[in-house]
Amino acid sequence: MRINVIGTSGSGKSTLAKRLASQLNVPYIEMDLLYWRPNWQGTPDEELYSRLEKLLEQPGWVLDGNYNRSRDIKWRNVDLVVWVDYGFWRTLRQVTLRAIARARSEQELWPGTGNRESLRRAFLSRESIILWSLKTWRQNRERYTRDMADPRYQHLRFVRLTTPQQVDEFLASLT
């Protein structure tokens, strides 16, 4: 099984992707881990795509992340796209609480990068994950709705989950 879990930052896609990978006993692949370098520098697309393609050669995986510019690579051999589409207020609450928790714990977000969330970055910066979530929530919803209807992706199976109860039911259906 090859699954791409998508959704706005803070929606819960990483949590679901990790649970899916564990339940299905397949590798968990995190796009943010592939992309982010030390000091919040991104990986150039050519290198990112090369690393991604190598990882996706495995017979099964759960891929966590949007990175729409890599969609052709991600969706080339994907079996299922799972869209975590919680409402605006729930997503905003989740991303805010996560940013606060990460800032308090000072946890490194991706090993070896030294990248950590801070309250300043979360609330007072143009690079704020909260601001990013605010700006992209509606865009993502429109994009994924179009993707589900796009003839180019008719071969894909989409699952849209809009509540935590639906997430639990979906996970239970896989056992």
Describe this structure in words.
It comes from Kosakonia sacchari. This is AAA family ATPase. It is a single chain. By secondary structure, the protein is α/β, with parallel strands linked by helices. It contains 8 helices and 7 strands, in the order βαβαββαβαβαααβα. The model has no long low-confidence stretch (mean pLDDT 96). A 5-stranded parallel β-sheet has the order 2-5-1-6-7. A two-stranded antiparallel sheet has the order 3-4. α5 packs across α7.
Strand content: 5-15%
- Biggest sheet strand order reads 2-5-1-6-7
Range of helix content = 40-55%
Order of helices and strands: EHEHEEHEHEHHHEH
Summarize the structure in short.
The chain is of the alpha/beta class and 175 residues long.
Topology (SSEs and partners):
Elements: E1 2-6, H1 13-24, E2 28-30, H2 31-35, E3 36-37, E4 41-42, H3 45-55, E5 61-64, H4 71-74, E6 80-84, H5 88-105, H6 119-124, H7 129-149, E7 157-161, H8 164-173
Parallel strand pairs: 1-5, 1-6, 2-5, 6-7
Antiparallel strand pairs: 3-4
Helix pairs in contact: 5-7
Notable characteristics:
175 residues; two-stranded antiparallel sheet; 15% strand; five-stranded parallel beta sheet; single chain; alpha/beta; globular
